[in-house]
Specification:
Protein name: 5958_t:CDS:1
Strand content: 15-25%
Helix content: 25-40%
Structural class: alpha+beta
Number of strands: 11
InterPro entries: F-box-like_dom_sf (IPR036047), F-box_dom (IPR001810)
Length: 408
């Protein structure tokens, strides 16, 4: 006799007491468990108060003021499957010297790079050869057998296996100018962080109780401040640092659903309702692996904010034609314009170059058309005023038989 079926809420409560990586691995037991495992993860995060930590600067140095801030889970969106973490109550901005601002480490409480024996898990695999050893000497040519063995070894060491917790270091590609302030993003395939950075800031605890005579000395001890607004992650990011994962052999020609869902979440939060998912700039982002440069993620987010999600190059081209008083229907007359629409980013010409080339072509055609039309009118008047029908016929054949540019 089969055991009784437990209600989903009971199963969810049970799963919530397990580590997140175990909840994730049990999601495929059946459809019911798959439908509730993320809710169990959300319950687990609240139950055990599991946090994300954001740390600025090199990890081996301890510098005051504190370079880290903790974030707690405040929500889970079922449609986008995104967990949102915000700084804990009364959290202060991170203050650091400008030279430490570039490196950002994002970690999760349950990540651990040690195995059950207490030993650190190696970040690379081992190369198996006939004698279980690899003697690499001087390589004269890339086609040498030793070169091929070295290639296999390097693939195993640097590309095949890694602990994702060790890969969650990011670099700010943009920092504020002196006395400036910026809003920027960091992210990868299943995580995005939003923060505000100010330059030349004096920490509040140092301002308190400062005399006027000491204010000048305090000005020379300014910091940059980093205020984290939120970190949004998918489940794959939460479990990504708990195990050794194998990198995919092929990074492209497949859509990473995590990036796709994350893009949906970003656009919906900022009320961006219209964007073209097939635009090259979007496709390149959602087709990218987790090693994608953070600067491109930031540029995409900035592009979304500026354009409000409108990536339609055709609309932009039509608006430019209207500004130049050119009929937009004419753009289909020249094949180089539709070709540019197909993939503008990989075109050898920029948008402005295509627009100028098109404008010149239209003006040149109009210029060529006007003299011919005046000749036709002059010839027509001559034909009407003469009685010689033979000359009329010759004139008609000579001019009106021509196919003028722009006319059929």
């Amino acid at each position: 006799m089969a055991p009784p079926h437990l209600p989903n809420d009971v199963v969810q409560n049970i799963l919530a007491y397990l580590p997140i990586k175990d909840i994730f691995s049990l999601r495929r037991v059946n459809r019911d468990w798959y439908s509730i495992y993320e809710h169990a993860i959300k319950q687990h995060l609240s139950l055990f108060n599991v946090k994300i930590s954001v740390t600025i600067g090199p990890q081996k140095k301890t510098i005051e003021p504190s370079l880290s801030v903790a974030l707690e889970c405040v929500g889970f969106d079922l449609d986008s499957r995104v967990f949102t973490f915000t700084p804990i109550p009364n959290a202060k901005p991170i203050y650091c010297k400008p030279n430490l601002l570039r490196q950002v480490k994002i970690s999760f409480d349950e990540w651990n790079t040690k195995n059950s024996n207490g030993n650190t898990t190696p970040l690379e695999g081992t190369l198996e050869t006939d004698d279980n050893s690899l003697n690499i000497g001087y390589i004269e040519h890339p086609s040498d057998p030793q070169a091929q063995e070295l290639l296999k070894y390097s693939n195993l060491r640097f590309h095949k296996f890694y602990v994702e917790a060790e890969k969650k270091s990011y670099y700010l590609e943009e920092t504020p100018e002196k006395d400036g302030e910026i809003e920027t993003y960091l992210g990868d395939r299943d995580m995005i962080l939003k923060c505000n950075i100010k330059d030349s800031v004096i920490p509040e605890e140092e301002i308190f109780g400062v005399d006027d005579e000491e204010e000048e000395d305090l000005e020379s001890n300014k910091y940059s401040s980093v205020e984290v607004e939120f970190v949004q992650v998918l489940t794959s990011w939460l479990v990504g640092g708990t195990t050794i994962n194998k990198l995919p052999q092929e990074f492209h020609k497949q859509i990473y659903p995590q990036r796709y869902c994350l893009l949906d979440k970003i656009t919906s939060d900022d009320s961006i309702l219209r964007y073209n998912r097939y635009c090259p700039s979007v496709l390149k982002w959602i087709l990218s692996d987790n090693l994608k440069d953070d600067s491109e993620t930031k540029q995409l987010c900035l592009h979304l904010h500026v354009t409000k999600g409108d990536f339609t190059i055709r609309d932009k081209f039509e608006e430019a034609l209207e500004e130049r008083s050119i009929d937009r229907q004419l753009m289909w007359k020249y094949s180089f314009v539709p070709r540019f629409f197909v993939d503008p980013e990989n075109s050898s010409d920029t948008f402005e170059q295509i627009l100028d080339r098109f404008s010149r072509s239209v003006k040149s055609e109009d210029k060529n058309r006007s003299p011919n039309m005046s000749i036709n009118n002059k010839t027509s008047n001559t034909n009407k005023s003469t009685d010689n029908t033979d000359n009329n016929s010759k004139t008609s054949n000579r001019f009106f038989g021509l196919r003028l540019p722009g006319f059929s």
